[in-house]
């Protein structure tokens, strides 16, 4: 699963290399709007006649991509690092399948680590039931729940949560690396 995702990550890094240099921040609205200059992107890469890339850039998924990844100050991830620093490595590996496979496996490992920061917790072994355990009769019945106490605890939790500040994630924001400009990107 992670290796397939790593292959797609490499593909999109190549496909969108230099996209950050074609982002424009429009500040005439109350909230700044990020616009992607499609014609400049396609023109500088010499792909104006490429129907596939034109359709990708006109799609709703790409509009969401621009609005999510466009801000210059946000949490960076593996895709940002690939687009900014690894595109040349990806191109160099095209003629060398063992190096390509090694890089895909490295990316897959990084994806796995990002999703499972504590691997010892993710894979706990459940002991196999002993022989004849299903024949035991000394199983205690589930205790009755005191409905009044449950309501009290719920109300107490609601009261506490209303006065508490909203929880925020501790993602560290940074300036997103721009990578090479579109003019320096070569066609694939």
From TrEMBL:
Highest taxon above the source species: Eukaryota
Listed SMART domains: dDENN
Domain UDENN: 1-76
Single GO cellular component term: cytoplasmic vesicle
Biological processes, Gene Ontology terms: regulation of Rab protein signal transduction
Molecular function (Gene Ontology), one example: guanyl-nucleotide exchange factor activity
InterPro entries noted in UniProt: dDENN_dom (IPR005112), DENN_Domain_GEFs (IPR051696), Tripartite_DENN (IPR037516)
PANTHER family noted in UniProt: C-MYC PROMOTER-BINDING PROTEIN, DENN DOMAIN-CONTAINING PROTEIN 4
Identification of the protein by name: MTMRD protein
Organism whose genome encodes this protein: Geococcyx californianus (Greater roadrunner)
Encoding gene per record: Sbf2_0
């Amino acid at each position: 699963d992670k290796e397939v995702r790593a292959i797609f990550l490499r593909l999109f890094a190549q496909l969108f290399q230099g996209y950050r240099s074609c982002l424009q921040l429009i500040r005439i609205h109350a909230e700044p709007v990020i616009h992607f200059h499609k014609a400049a992107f396609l023109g500088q890469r010499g792909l104006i006649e490429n129907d596939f890339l034109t359709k990708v850039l006109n799609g709703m998924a790409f509009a969401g991509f621009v609005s999510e990844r466009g801000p210059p100050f946000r949490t960076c991830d593996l895709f940002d690092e690939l687009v900014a620093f690894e595109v040349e490595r990806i191109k160099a590996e095209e003629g060398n399948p063992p190096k390509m496979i090694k890089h895909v496996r490295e990316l897959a490992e990084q994806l796995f680590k990002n999703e499972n920061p504590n691997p010892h917790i993710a894979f706990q072994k459940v002991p196999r039931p002993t022989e004849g355990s299903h024949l035991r009769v000394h199983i205690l019945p589930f205790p009755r729940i005191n409905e009044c106490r449950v309501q009290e605890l719920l109300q107490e939790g609601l009261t506490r949560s209303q006065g508490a500040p909203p929880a925020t994630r501790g993602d560290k924001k940074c300036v997103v690396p721009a990578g090479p400009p579109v003019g320096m990107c070569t066609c694939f």
